[in-house]
Amino acid sequence: MKGIDVITGALLACTDRQYTVPGFPVTELGAKTRAEMVINEKTALEYALGDSLEGRRAAVIIKNVGVNACADPLLQAAAQGLIGGVLLVVGDDPEALGSQTAQDSRYYGELAELPVIEPDASTCYAGVEAALAASEQFSRVAMLRLTPEIFDAEVKYLPVPRHPGKGRLSDRSWTMNGRITAAEELYRTMFDWSNASALNQWKGDPAGVGAARGNTRIVTVHPLPAQAARITEVHEVGRTFVRDHRGLQPPAPQQSPEVMQSRGYYRTFCKNCPFKPMMNLLKARRMNMICDAGCSILGMTPPYELGVASYGMGSSIAVAARSTKVALIGDYALLHSGLNALIDVYEKHFPLLCIVMNNNCTAMTGKQRSYDPAPYLLWADPVICSADDEETLKNELVVTDTPRTLVVNGTCPEGSSHETVNY
Question: Considering just the CA atoms, what is the radius of gyration of the chain in Å?
Answer without folding.
Answer: 23
